[in-house]
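BUG: 3D viewer hangs when loading the predicted structure for this chain

Environment: internal workstation, default settings.
Expected: structure renders.
Actual: progress bar stalls at 90%.

Input used:
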Amino acid sequence: MPPGFITEDKRVKQHGRYTGTSSQVNMKHQKVIKDENDRYGHVRQNEQYTCTIISSGEEDAADAPGTKHTNSSNSEGDYHLMQHEVLYSSSCAYEVLEFLGRGTFGQVVKCWKRGTSEIVAIKILKNHPSYARQGEIEVNILRCLGQENADEYHFVRAFEFFKHKNHTCLVFEMLEQNLYDFLKHNKFQPLPLKYIRPIAQQVLTALAKLKSLGLIHADLKPENIMLVDPLRYPYRVKVIDFGSACHVSKAVCSTYLQSRYYR
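Structure tokens produced before the viewer hung:
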């Protein structure tokens, strides 16, 4: 269980009670989860974090826009997530379905965009001051990339950005599986050259576009190369995670950025 993801037992301790049990989950949520699982297939094996399904009649009221909250973050600045919690932007409501992963600058969750059939990935940045500036840079870079054709240049599409309880939230298209997990699932068997070529070509297309825009990704690795949809579009990939990116004019040599394993 990932730190900060509130389970049934923790909710009882924090609030003294909860409404319903896992067998009494609101039928709307059951249908949403079934629909999105049917649509998107298997859950990524390496992103195994899940949480107990809980239901609370207070969730919508508790997360209404403008409501003041306290103790919403842990000591590391990560937001305390609760399954089926609703994250509000100025125009949309996103219901948290599943925890996907954690990185240096925050965590990522799978969400349902209420009122639609859309499933998105939301990156919730830490609210720690040391990460705030880089979060602003990432948003600015994504806005710049938003003016380009994400499918043509093979980088992830960002839909919107908003604040939720003092945490910056970045909404992205939902992609299937990163290249590292794909290789791990296949026991790290080498890919045939006929598959390596198109993957390399797409990644280089993305990097060439970034160069033309004066941007440096700074954290390119298999975990940040996503397979879009292996069933419908085999080996179509997109580059993700611009949390370490910067403009070439702001680059600082010898700064520790990328994981040592890939250097």
